[in-house]
UniProtKB/TrEMBL annotation:
Pfam families: MMR_HSR1. It comes from Anaerococcus obesiensis. SUPFAM superfamilies: P-loop containing nucleoside triphosphate hydrolases. One of its GO terms (biological process) is translation. Residues 11-178 form the CP-type G domain. This is Ribosome biogenesis GTPase A. The gene is ylqF. Belongs to the TRAFAC class YlqF/YawG GTPase family. MTG1 subfamily.
Length: 278
């Protein structure tokens, strides 16, 4: 599946991030724990590679707990500190600050030597659309400032936000890169980082069922009371019939059924699932 998706504001955002790097001490990268690799924008990683970073593994309430731990270790092996998080719940801001302060040890040491009393840490928050970045910022800042929703690309203007833990956040719009090939495009589509409206959702759903058959067959069986040994198409149609996604004369409404299945996955009703394995 080849996907081209690059709104004009995303090109502009990339330039804004590049120009704003000198204003911050560290990068907070919010990723989707269900797709830890695909939800990291390679262009932003390249732009910010010289800055220290902390990865916020968001939506860990929806991802496989075993895989969560494996990814935390993988990032640590790569020299990156990652924190598991559900941005909809209370965020331990002090933990983030302490980790950042440890990473920026040399900076604080130099400030102390120069008798500079400045405990503030300036952080740039980056993340692809629908990673939960806006929810994270609103929660950590105890505010309702950024528009939040399941629609990719909602936050579109640069914003500074102050928190109670000496953290200054520079918000940036969610940004994707120009073209996705193969599995990356599928993963971003499964999690709704790419709008359903520009996709063939029926084909996408069939791919998703094939993935579920291979890695999480029990989840399919428990949620839909079906036999996971059947073909993906047979499962697709059986779910449609069982859930009443019918057009006429018993014909399955594949689009309606696909929306139903993806809503179950994205809301966690299908269980805790990680698409990308560490």
């Amino acid at each position: 599946m080849n996907i081209n998706w690059y709104p004009g504001h995303m090109k502009k955002t990339k330039e804004e991030i590049k120009n704003s790097l000198k204003l911050v001490d560290i990068v907070l990268e919010v990723i989707d724990a269900r797709i830890p690799k695909s939800s990291r924008n390679p262009l932003i990683t390249e732009i910010t590679e010289k800055k220290d970073r902390i990865i916020i593994m968001n939506k860990t309430d929806l991802s496989d707990p075993v895989e969560n731990e494996k990814w935390i270790k993988k990032f640590a092996d790569d020299g990156i500190k990652a924190i598991k998080m559900n941005a909809k719940e209370k965020i331990n801001t002090k933990e983030i600050y302490n980790i950042a302060k440890e990473i920026l040890f040399e900076k604080f040491k130099k400030n102390e030597e120069k008798n500079i009393e400045n405990e503030n840490i300036r952080m740039m928050v980056v993340g692809i659309p629908n990673s939960g970045k806006s929810t994270f910022i609103n929660n950590i800042a105890k505010r309702k400032g950024a528009r939040v929703g399941n629609r990719p690309g909602v936050t579109q203007q640069k914003q500074w936000i102050k928190t109670k833990e000496n953290i200054l956040l520079l918000d940036t719009p969610g940004v994707l890169w120009p073209k996705f090939d193969g599995q990356t495009g599928l993963n971003l589509s499964f999690t709704n980082a790419i709008k359903d409206e520009i996709l063939n959702i029926e084909e996408l759903c069939l791919k998703f069922i094939e993935f579920m058959k291979e890695f999480y067959p029990k989840n399919l069986e428990e949620r839909y009371k079906i036999d996971s040994n059947k073909t993906a198409l047979e499962i697709y149609e059986e779910i449609g019939i069982k859930r009443g996604a019918i057009i006429r004369k018993g014909e399955v409404d594949y689009t309606r059924c696909a929306n139903l299945i993806f809503n179950d996955f994205r809301s966690g009703k299908l269980g805790r699932i990680t698409i990308e394995k560490a």
